[in-house]
Design brief:
The protein contains two helices and seven strands. By secondary structure, the chain is of the alpha+beta class.
């Protein structure tokens, strides 16, 4: 497990990859148009993960002062993919930098699938 280490006069601060992953997952799912994180492709279908385990669907490479993040997301049907992906990149970058002090050098967004909202069944008509 690689982690960010910042040395100070009073000691050192270590930020684990898991922490950066969770921050990234939370920031990504806050964006309108993101249905959830994708834990991978299983039998041809993207596994949709809600807020149960937000570090799934996030790959992080953390150096001493920089981080690179890959996000695998499921997008809601009807959302504009380029706009949503850009908002995810900005929100994740802002959240990670403000909470950890790391410089985020890249945020790569991988769209793994589209979630279709199921319409509620119409109530049967009474005659």
């Amino acid at each position: 497990m690689i982690e960010s280490v910042e040395k100070r006069e009073t000691g050192s601060v270590r930020i684990a990859n898991e922490v950066v992953s969770i921050i990234s997952g939370l920031a990504a799912t806050e964006v309108k148009g993101v249905a959830g994180m994708s834990g991978g492709v299983v039998d041809g279908f993207a596994e949709l993960l809600k807020k149960k385990n937000l570090s799934k669907g996030v790959k992080v490479e953390v150096g001493e002062k920089q981080a690179a993040i890959d996000l695998f997301i499921i997008i809601e049907y009807g959302a504009k993919i380029p706009d949503t992906a850009y908002m995810v990149q900005e929100n994740v970058k802002r959240a990670v930098e403000s909470m950890t002090g790391l410089e985020v050098v890249e945020v790569n967004v991988h769209i793994q699938g589209v979630e279709f909202k199921q319409e509620e069944a119409a109530e049967p008509k009474v005659r």
